[in-house]
Amino acid sequence: MSETEKIVLNIQQEMKRGTLVLAVLTQMDQPQYGYSLIQALSEKDMVIEQNTLYPLMRRLEKQGLLDSIWQVEENRPRRYYKISTLGHEVRDVLIKEWQSLDVTMSKLIGGLK
Known about the structure:
Layout: H1 3-26, H2 34-43, H3 50-62, E1 66-73, E2 76-83, H4 85-110
Antiparallel strand pairs: 1-2
């Protein structure tokens, strides 16, 4: 792998990390357990690894953005997460920020053509 490819890969990973919270919050209106959330995100081309998702969901719960409950299905306990009232408020602010950033970046990138 060339030096350029290494730099680009690193920056791409940083950019993705910065969008994961918003990506997760957009999918939490209905209760989700970890694997179902991974599938929902993957179907929309947002790939996330289990070892990234589970700590993120625990952190979002600790911050009060997600609520969780344990349910037993087919003799398997699963922890389901759903967006909280605070999570809705934060998500709305983050969406507005994302949209503003998108407009700004489009102007900047458009200036390169």
